[in-house]
Amino acid sequence: MTTAFDGQVQQIGDRLIVRVPEDVSSALPSRGQVAVEAQVNGRAWATVVEPDGRKGHWLAVDEQLQTALSLSDGDTVDVELEPTRAWPEPDLPEDFEAALTDASDLAEPWDSITPMARWEWVRWVSATRNPQTRERRIEVSVDKLRNGSRRPCCFDLSSCTDPELSKSGKLVDTVDQP
Which of 29, 36, 58, 166 has its CA 20 to 30 A from that of 87? Predict the structure, then answer.
């Protein structure tokens, strides 16, 4: 099922996003992350829409897309989303990738989990602003993967866990920004 909508690019901090309208979001198969084939102004890529912590979703506008389409805050874009079961590989944060590389015995366990589960690990590691907490989550991740864990822990998959864009598990409103 492909859905299309006109979305507005919004800037939160240094980042650009497009909020998914309520009717489109409610038609997605999960209140958490959803793998999609996306198009913004005709530019296609595989990505994941993120939960906003309010039963909705948002789409990240990464630097490559921002540059390619010359997008900025307030621009209107044509968006198409088609949910898919084929999850793209997540971009691993450098510190997490280094820890996995250093733990060479984890290559097989890491490769054996689904890309969806790898997204969960990345979300959990990245869901904090505190450097000590992040470091501890990486250590715990290595230990859990060594012990056969397929998922990081029991956190609310429908909350917004990007610490640059969220407060208390909810995507911040642009009106709440300083």
Answer: 166
Q: Residue 176: its pLDDT value, please?
A: 53
The values of phi and psi at residue 33, to 5°, are -65, 145
Q: CA angle at residue 37 from 36 to 39, to 5 degrees?
A: 120
- pTM for the predicted model, two decimal places: 0.89
Segments of 62-167 assigned E as strands? 76-83, 166-167
- Report pLDDT digits (tens) over 150-168: 988 777 889 998 999 999 8
Contacts of 123 (CB under 8 A, 6+ apart): 33, 152, 155, 161
3-state SS assignment for residue 9: strand
Residue 153 is encoded by which pair of tokens?
């822990």
Q: Which helix (H) or strand (E) holds 24?
A: helix 22-27
- Asked if 160 and 147 count as a contact pair (C-beta separation under 8 A), the reply is no
Write the CATH number of the domain with boundaries 3-83: 2.40.30.100
Q: Where exactly are the structural domains of the chain?
A: 3-83
Sign of CA pseudo-dihedral 20, 56, 163, 173: positive
The pair of three-digit structure tokens given for residue 177, joined into one six-digit string:
């920004």
